[in-house]
Amino acid sequence: MPIVKTLHIVFMVSWFAGLFYLPRLFVYHAMAAADDRIGIERLKTMERKLYYGIMTPAAVLTIAFGVWLWLGYGFSGGWLHAKLGLVLVLVAFHLYLGHLMREFAHDRNRHGHVFYRWINEIPALPLLVAIVWLVVAKPF
Ligand code: HEM
Questions:
Q1: pTM
Q2: How many domains does the chain contain in total?
Q3: 2-31 vs 78-105: helix axis angle to the nearest 10?
Q4: Positive/negative CA dihedral, 116, 13, 46, 61
C-alpha cells in the first residue's frame, strides 16, 4: 500500500500545482495587450500544455490510485464519502478551467484579471484543506 499511497499523493500535488497555476496564467492572459500577438500565442500554448499535459493526467492518476486505495485496501467511513463529494466539486472546477482555457484559445474571454485573481485561490485552497483534513483526521 505505501507505493500506491505515495503515487496517490504525488499525482495529487501535481494536480493541485496546475489548479493554482492555470488561473495565474489566465490573469496574465486577461491583462495582455490586444496587439501583443506573440505574448498571447505563448500563453495559449502554456495553458494548453499545462491543462492537457500535466493537470488532466495528474487528475486521472490521483483518482485512479485513490480508488485503488479505497477498493483495494478496504477503506470506508463517512470521511471517505465526504471526501468523494469534495473530489466531485474539484473535478467540476477542473473542467470549468478547461472551458475557460478554450474560451481564451478562441479569443472569446469575457472576464477581467480581477475575476481570475479570485479563482486563483477560491475554490482550490479551501477544497485542498478540507480534503486533506478529512483523510488525515477521519473525523467521522
Ligand atoms: C476519487 C478520489 C479519491 C479517493 C477514492 C481517495 C481515497 C483515498 C484513500 C482510501 C486514502 C488512504 C487513507 C489512509 O491511508 O488513511 C487516501 C489517502 C490520501 N488522499 Fe485520497 N482519495 C481521492 C482523491 C484525493 C484527492 C483529490 C486528494 C487531494 C487533496 C487526496 C488526498 C489524500 C491524502 C493527502 C492522503 C494521505 C493521507 C494519509 O496518509 O493519512 N485524495 N485517499
A1: 0.91
A2: 1
A3: 30
A4: negative
pLDDT given for residue 123 in this prediction: 81
Domain that holds residue 47: 2-137
Cβ-Cβ contacts under 8 Å for 16 (sequence gap 6 or more): 124, 128
Cβ-proximal residues to 66 (8 Å cutoff; 6+ apart), any chain:
8, 87
* Residue 126 CA to ligand 1 centre (angstroms): 16
- For residue 46, report the distance from its CA to the centre of ligand 1, in Å: 29
- pLDDT grade, residue 36 (50/70/90)? very high
Residue 122 has pLDDT above 90, yes or no: no
The pLDDT score that the predictor gives to residue 125 is 86
Comparing C-alpha atoms, which of 96, 75, 90, 91 is closest to residue 130?
A: 90
- Closest-CA residue, ligand 1 atom 3, reads 66
Predicted confidence at residue 121, as pLDDT, reads 79
Q: Which residues lie with the beta carbon below 6 Å from any ligand 1 atom?
A: 5, 8-9, 12, 62-63, 66-67, 69-70, 75, 84, 87, 90, 128, 131-132, 135-136
Distance from Cα 98 to the centre of ligand 1, integer Å: 24
pLDDT class for 92, splitting at 50, 70, 90?
A: very high
